[in-house]
Amino acid sequence: MSGEGILKPMATLGARPSRQQGVAQSALTRYRFTPEAFHRLAAMGVFPPEARLELIEGDIYTVPPEGPDHTTTRLRTVRSLSRRVSNRWYVRTEAPLRLGDSEPVLDASIVKGDEETIHTLFEPEWAIRVSELLH
Question: Whole-prediction pTM value?
Fold first, then answer.
């Protein structure tokens, strides 16, 4: 499988001398991932199956475990939102939403559709409300 198109190189960070060590640090190249590349890497088994990851502006981050207070707040939020939406909209929980080069896993989002379409990665025009609760 070709790796072409998986990575988008960002600017190379220039070498800077380290005052503490007196030695110049080597230049680093940072790579940004597209959502498609992120999913290809997952399908190839690059990430452990139990890994909780999200893509933010091309960078892959681990998602910390959810604590009991956060879980309770998320569930209450979803229940409250679910009571207020019509049958043309669906409240999703802990589901990704494609936003350019980001694919955050949101605590709650209201999207156009129903239970049959919640597996789809919705583009921003499908969402009317997104929520990420603070820990």
Answer: 0.67
